Amino acid sequence: MRKTALFLAAAFALSAGAAHPVDSINGQYYKLFAPLTFYHNVAGSYFSIASDDPDEVAEAIDQALMNVYLTRPDLVQITETEQKAAGTLRNDVIKKKLKQDVDMVDQAMPMPDMPDAAPVEVAVEKPHFWKYKGDGYLQFMQNYVSGNWYKGGESNYAAVGHLTLEANYDNKSKWKWENKLEMKLGFQTSRTDSLHEFKSTEDLLRYTGKVGLQAANRWYYTMQLLAYTQFTKGFKSNDVKIYSDFFSPFNMSVGLGMDYKVQAMNKRLTGTINISPFAFNYRYVGRSWFTEENWFPSRYGIEEGKHHLSDFGSQLTASLEWKLNEVVTWKSRFYAFTSYHRAELEWENTFALRVSRYISANVFLFPRFDDSNKWDSDLGYWQFKEYSSLGFTYNF
């Protein structure tokens, strides 16, 4: 209310004083902008009948103030009597001129002449798209093999060595080329076997190669090549027959499909999952001692008298590593192939317990299904292998 009334009064007073520029600067407008004060002469001039020299500006200001006094007396902060009792401003005149003392600073030294910049040779290094890594161990173990295991062997104490080498290409754009070579060889001795001083319990030579073109995020169009065989002959206890050997069998599969890069649980779970709707599987057995009297290719699904088997079908492979904590790591490999009239599944599981930097304990579980093999009265088409070991390990 006060602001509205004073604003209107100021507007009227300014318009009224526009014709009197001299009066507009005589300070009579201060009543409108100073804290609201009760002035005695406002009431007197307001109730005066006539004035000898009417002043339109003064009358407008008095009318505005009187309107506030009557309608909003609560806004009045001080009276004219109290204002005079507070005193006036000092009228002292400062006659002495103020002069600022400025200290001159020393002149700065001129900038020294800088020599011209010497030419610099720029070395451009070729980016490194290849990454290499590997791990290996040599351990002792207790081994279990089911009686119908397709490569032979028996349960016993043994030793095993394993080496994995990887060379992976990634141009940080679209293409990836992954190469993985796995070598595992284990031997055992058995007092019950009078024919063989040593027999192989673990025998694997496997290569996995994948060429991928990125499709979206972690998905890649992929062609995968998987090939594996073994190093030495495979025997059973007290049996002169040879059940397996180098390139007997030899397995190879080529698949076209999609590859997914797994990365979860703050990168504690990593690996790849490959789905190949179009896959070709080839199996070969070609040793001369596989004669009609000693014909064992049939245990690999190969017909008698032949040395190879080829099928078209679908394939699923997965290779995962899960660091459960700082001590225990689970490595899993799953392989499945079906030609829609036969099926083959393998699931390798290695639980590694790190004792120290160079010592670890492993538990290996390997169930396998192959309905191209002979039916077993105990396990059917299932086969199972297990061992636990303790020994030296090294990563690089």
Record the SSE blueprint.
Elements: H1 2-16, H2 30-33, E1 37-38, H3 40-46, H4 56-71, E2 78-79, H5 80-85, E3 130-145, E4 156-170, E5 175-188, E6 199-216, E7 219-229, E8 250-264, E9 269-284, E10 308-323, E11 328-338, E12 343-354, E13 359-370, E14 382-395
Parallel strand pairs: 1-2
Antiparallel strand pairs: 3-4, 3-14, 4-5, 5-6, 6-7, 7-8, 8-9, 9-10, 10-11, 11-12, 12-13, 13-14
Helix pairs in contact: 1-4, 3-4
Describe this structure in words.
The protein has helices at 2-16, 30-33, 40-46, 56-71, 80-85; strands at 37-38, 78-79, 130-145, 156-170, 175-188, 199-216, 219-229, 250-264, 269-284, 308-323, 328-338, 343-354, 359-370, 382-395. It is mainly beta and 396 residues long. A hairpin with a 4-residue loop joins strand 4 (156-170) and strand 5 (175-188). The radius of gyration is 50 Å and the shape is elongated. Residues 16-25 have low confidence and may be disordered.
List the keywords.
mainly beta; two-stranded parallel ribbon
- By DSSP (H or I, 4+ residues per run), the number of helices equals 5
Global mean pLDDT = 81
Q: Based on the structure, what is the oligomeric state of the protein chains? A: single chain
Low-confidence stretches: 16-25
Number of strands: 14
Q: Name the overall outline.
A: elongated
Query: How would you spell out the order of helices and strands?
Result: HHEHHEHEEEEEEEEEEEE
C-alpha-based Rg, rounded? 50 Å
Please give the order of strands in the largest beta sheet: 3-4-5-6-7-8-9-10-11-12-13-14
Distance between the termini: 85 Å
Helix content: 10-25%
